[in-house]
Amino acid sequence: MPYSLQKKIKQFSLGLLICLMFMAAAISTLGLRDQVVMADVVVVPGNTVNPDGKPSERLRGRLNAALRLYATQQCKAILVSGGIGEEGHDEAAVMKKYLVDHGVPDAAVYTDNQGITTFATAKAAAALMREKNWKTSMLASQFFHIARFQLAMKKYGVTPVGHVHSTHYEVRDAYSLAREVLAYFEYTFSNPQVE
To answer: Which of 8, 66, 74, 194 has the most CB within a 10 Å radius?
Structure first.
């Protein structure tokens, strides 16, 4: 391979790496800076449910973030959205039980058991907000997920007015952040409404 071509490949690779690192920093900065405002609904996406039917630590982190908002009267309702996980549990049902067991009235928790992707959760949230004539929403998820979650909501016509992040952190968050950078690009160029 000619030296000039090798040099161009190295320069391109370095430029791409810098771009990805910048994106990771931007995603982290956005997600770690909570924007707490009054909202009609807080949307919480699903995550792993343990084999015993209890929310995983990561999922509890998201739910606890939503609980704090409800407890401080920052929202009227909570939408929990998830699918049927590998363990066979309905994530949304498990999430609702957790919230109700921790003091949120049953009538204030809405469920969507079709939320198998961030786009699916955004679609369900947009539909519920139209049905209830709600205008404002907040998002509750891991810090690295907030940017893509906001993007998905906007693609369904909802501009979230705020967000909070889970205070549960894991070593694998570094991998999840790297994956989110790529997923954000994918979501940027996707049009879920034609699916």
So the answer is: 66
